[in-house]
Amino acid sequence: MEILRKTGNQTGARIARKEDEAKVVSVRRLMWLRFKRNRLAVIGGIFLLLMYLAAIFAGFIAPNDPTMVHSQYVSMAPHGLNFVDTDGNFHLIPFVYGVKSAVDPATFRKTFQIIPEEKYPLQFFVRGSEYTILGIFRTDIHLFGVEEPGKLFLFGTDTQGRDIFSRVWFGAQVSLSVGLLGVFLTLVFGSIIGIASGYIGGLFDDIIQRVIELLMSFPQLPLWLALAALVPDNWPSDRIYFAITIVLAILSWGALARQTRSMVYALREADFVTAARYSNCSDWRIITRHLLPNTMSHIIVIATTAIPGMILGETALSFLGLGIRSPLISWGLLLTDAQHIRVLVQQPWILTPAIFVIATIIAFNFLGDGLRDAADPFAK
Amino acid sequence: MEIQLNAVPHADRPLLEILHLKKHYPVTRGLLKRTVGYVKAVDDVSLTIYPGQTLGLVGESGSGKTTLAHSVMRGITPTAGSVIFHDDHLGPVDVASADPAALRHVRRNMQMVFQDPFSSLNPRMTVLDIIAEPLQVNQIAKGKAAQERVAELLQLVGLRPEYMRRFPHAFSGGQRQRIVVARALALNPRLVLLDEPTSALDVSIQAQTLNLLKDLQSRLNLSYLFISHDLGVVEHVSDTVAVMYVGRVVEVAPTRKLYQQPKHPYTEALLSSIPKPDPTRKKRRIAIAGEIPNPANPPPGCHFHPRCPYAQPICAHEAPPLREVTPGQFAACHFSDELNLKGVNDF
Amino acid sequence: MTNMLLQIKDLRTHFFTESGVVRAVDGVSFDIAPGKTLGVVGESGCGKSVTGYSILQLINPPGRIVGGQILFEREKNGRKEVVDLLKYGARSEDIRQIRGNEIAMIFQEPMTSLDPLFTVGDQLAEAILVHQKVSKRSALDRATELLDKVRLPQARELLNKYPHQLSGGMRQRVMIAMALSGQPKLLIADEPTTALDVTTEGQILDLMQSLQEEFGMAMLFITHDLGVIAEMAEEVVVMYLGRVVEKTDVRTLFDAPKHPYTRALLESIPKVGHKHDGPLQTIEGMVPSPFNIPQGCPFHPRCARFMPGICDEAVPAETPLERSHTVRCYLYSEQAEGDRYGNPA
Ligand SMILES: Nc1ncnc2c1ncn2[C@@H]1O[C@H](COP(=O)(O)OP(=O)(O)OP(=O)(O)O)[C@@H](O)[C@H]1O
Ligand SMILES: Nc1ncnc2c1ncn2[C@@H]1O[C@H](COP(=O)(O)OP(=O)(O)OP(=O)(O)O)[C@@H](O)[C@H]1O
Ligand SMILES: [Mg+2]
Ligand SMILES: [Mg+2]
Fold this sequence. Notes:
- The structure holds 3 protein chains of 3 kinds.
- In chain A, helix 5 packs antiparallel against helix 10 and helix 8 (237-268) runs antiparallel to helix 10 (283-319).
- The longest helix of chain A has 37 residues, at 164-200.
- By secondary structure, chain A is an alpha+beta fold.
- Chain A is built from 13 helices and 5 strands.
- Chain B is globular.
- Chain B has helices spanning 65-73, 100-109, 127-137, 143-156, 173-185, 203-220, 231-237, 255-260, 265-273, and strands spanning 16-29, 34-49, 54-58, 80-87, 91-94, 110-113, 191-195, 223-228, 240-245, 248-254, 323-326, 329-331.
- Chain B has 9 helices and 12 strands.
- Chain B has an 8-stranded mixed beta sheet with strand order 6-7-8-3-9-10-12-11, with helices on both faces. A 4-stranded antiparallel beta sheet of chain B has the order 2-1-4-5.
- Chain B has a domain at 14-55 and 68-97 and 229-347: Rossmann fold (3-Layer(aba) Sandwich), CATH 3.40.50.300.
- Chain C is an alpha/beta fold.
- Chain C folds into 2 domains: 1-102 and 184-281 and 318-345, P-loop containing nucleotide triphosphate hydrolases (Rossmann fold), CATH 3.40.50; 116-183.
- Chain C contains 11 helices and 12 strands.
- In chain C, strand 1 (6-17) and strand 2 (20-32) form a beta hairpin.
- In chain C, helix 4 crosses helix 5 (136-149), helix 4 (120-131) runs parallel beside helix 7 and helix 5 (136-149) packs across helix 7 (168-180).
- The longest helix of chain C has 18 residues, at 198-215.
- Chain C is globular.
- At the B-C interface, helix 6, helix 7, helix 8 and helix 9 of B face helix 8, helix 9, helix 10 and helix 11 of C.
């Protein structure tokens, strides 16, 4: 049975309405949505954000001056905050005990004993040593601390009696920024050379590729060591800092340039680039409007994944005494104390900075994974 | 030896003449990139396109259709031959050897539409930026004026101007292909090269796109070079059809003639191979054996002879020239006059 | 009813993706008789491939077959019995026995199903050894035989070649040879010629037809090309957005199609040999996103005969017309589908 009923043909209008409902999402927003889906990446990102913030405000977070030598408290184990005292009473505000040192008559080693009568409650926004934030703001307010003569060494002290907890945050300033600065240099070198090599092609491309191959076929560590050894001993520490970042960047731009080049190489043949050429676009315009925007997100991903390598590189160089030198502090430098097995066995807390190195590296890797997904928001 | 393709009566003089065009890619081997031979992707092709007309170009994959189109645009520099564009201002320009200024001018009059609508649009640019780019680059319109022109172009291709702030990923394949067409038309070209413009599209979307292209052609007096391997689509849109086989044109003729009375055995084989949407006409294919030869190493003589059911000894060593067999119909076969080949409706 | 080789009843395969549920196949039913060819046509994304994969339970997460029956008549110990393939687990020994042995499948892009690291001979012999207990040597002999069957010249030499050394047409022939190795009762061919050139396509279609006769197998032929359907199929189902909208024999499909979608589809292709200057008939709009299938008849937003208040309410029921012809459209019956969401029919 056929239902015969004439209907006006409003198909077009109906379809138009349907289409309107499709949202106008930018590529950037798609990327963000993709990134958000990766839980670990988000956690990694937040962790790193906190780490960098802490590094910037290191002076505020650190209760002690990182270079201050507490000669009575050399190589002291961490002595933490307590809520419950020796009598079993609960305190709402945690406190630290006073400590006195004694020499063990049998082993002649220094030992520390708490003085149960001396309790120093934790205080917030206390005045202490002076420091600057980003070299601009000078202040002496610290997030927390205890009243003199109490001492707060959350992670213990090193062989010279300096507060490891405070040194970790000041070390973060150097270690974390070396990664960023090094990667920035890598990014600039690598992407310019990569894009040029991919776009120009031909002999130029061949030469660049061979150079990169040569660079990449050297074993990294010896090359780093050799380059770092070239840095004069008598340079001031900040100049050494820059020299080290450059050393790190020199060895990593090759990989980035390579990947950029292969992306550009593929994109160069993409129909939209051909179309741009056929509408008389200049090479400059093609590079800046078509190639760069389509490779930038991938380049940033590659760069992010290079940061951990840089941090490890700095750590390794400083650990071996060829990197950052005092009075600057870096995580690698903090670990130099741990070179002797005797120290390690007796004072394992000296390794605490390594935990930060590991956590940061892992966080960067998680973040890199998430960014990689986000860089390709159209992939299934 | 000049081939006179102008025997068909046409009111106008030609818009584009492709004369003895060749593109040979070197085949290299080893570390030192020694040239060991050539892929003759396009091998001595001559074709003519008239104003307001469509030249259909069919051929199986690897026959050189895309290479030909890019050689016309000089995205690929031809090995030999010329591509004469008859420009209103500059007169005849040989695209193959034009200086940069002339090339820029000619490219405004010649545009190309690609097969894959997904790689034809920069994913990081809005539709507005994409279509306005040719206008800005060629200093035709900027800002508000460009925006108005984009709106006009979007309307022309049947998209709503409000879409111009969207990014390509928000569009379906068919809509993207419309955007590509709008971009190609931005500069008011005389000739559009369409490289398989519908083969990535669904059947129902293909019909919309074909109608749009025909409609635009009559409204804007456009000329098309329409490349496809779908013989039904090419028949529908073309005035003249050229058939390519391994880099050479084997037959050129007005559409109806080519489909009803082909003069080259390869054309006949193609026509017989098309699966026809008509269950009453089952299975009457001319079985042509074998496969398309490797273009780096094609058979001598007529490239088609190893598969040709009518091949004679001469075909194996002498390449037949393209010659006029009936008025307006050119075929490259030694036996075009003797053979009585079947048309598409005879199978 | 005559005995059927394969009966699909109300098959539903859904993909549970992060952006929502894709009802890729949503209530598909059809039968295939032994030795016959059933064609499945429809536009991209309508669920043709997923239907084919579902039969062999080759659906991977996030996809899942959520309902229906796939009744297959198999011979076991000399007795015929009808089994529901969905009762077997996707990794069970039974379904493995059926795959390749009784039901084989070939795909659009043969390169994805051939391993580039092994020679043609290795892969063919492997396929034979999985199902038959013979020596490696006789498996290779059998492989040569199969390559002869698919009319590949110089079969012996071909055995030592790698897939990338073959042309597209040759690869597809190798795939067919592999599919035939178990002498299947049913061959599922998912767009086997879409990636091929016209002349090669013709050769492969001819080959498949003659092999079908020789082996007496049934075929489920998936394609979006109505020309190929006309040539290959005896019965046809037309799919749109995961549903069968029309089901009939191939003559009727081309002579007297009933569903507006089928009609529009047939009119929108340029008919070779019948050049005219007018525009082609088109279907307006585009296939909706699979996440957003319209309510009621899925075709209603594009349908030229849309009836407001009827077509956009409930899914029309499958209505039998004459003989084996059925159609899902309110133009032919007011009956709505007995709704599985508890809505009144
Ligand atoms: N850059 C290149 N270098 C070497 N050979 C090439 C190059 N580009 C194309 N070819 C070869 O030239 C021949 C013609 O290729 P072309 O792309 O023009 O064919 P086509 O007719 O467009 O095919 P299709 O239908 O597959 O698009 C092919 O054999 C191809 O391999
Ligand atoms: N793995 C998957 N995950 C999510 N959705 C899927 C998946 N596979 C298929 N689909 C969806 O299922 C629907 C049907 O897909 P299917 O591959 O069966 O289409 P088709 O008819 O074979 O199309 P084509 O002609 O393009 O091959 C589509 O909407 C598709 O997006
Ligand atoms: Mg091509
Ligand atoms: Mg499919």
